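Appendix B. One record, verbatim.
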Amino acid sequence: MPLSPLTTPETTHQTEVEESLDAPWNVVVHNDPITKMDYVTMVFQKIFGYARAKAERHMLEVHHSGRSVLWSGSRERAEFYVQQLHGYQLLATLESTA
């Protein structure tokens, strides 16, 4: 039995979901009043492999602006980084760029 134009399966929603999964995700660290700046810098170096100067720039952005986007990429890797940051007692979240 041939499909009429009215019974053609809808694929728009599925495509939108696939595109949102492929969109980059940001790893964001938020400021807290307790954690020492040197400790935050060390964590950024250890987790992301940043040079001290880059880690310090991000630490200062967190300190002055309340947050810093540390990394952007796949959701799976972003979730991994957030878990690592939580392991060091830092407040981190994921943000979709879509």
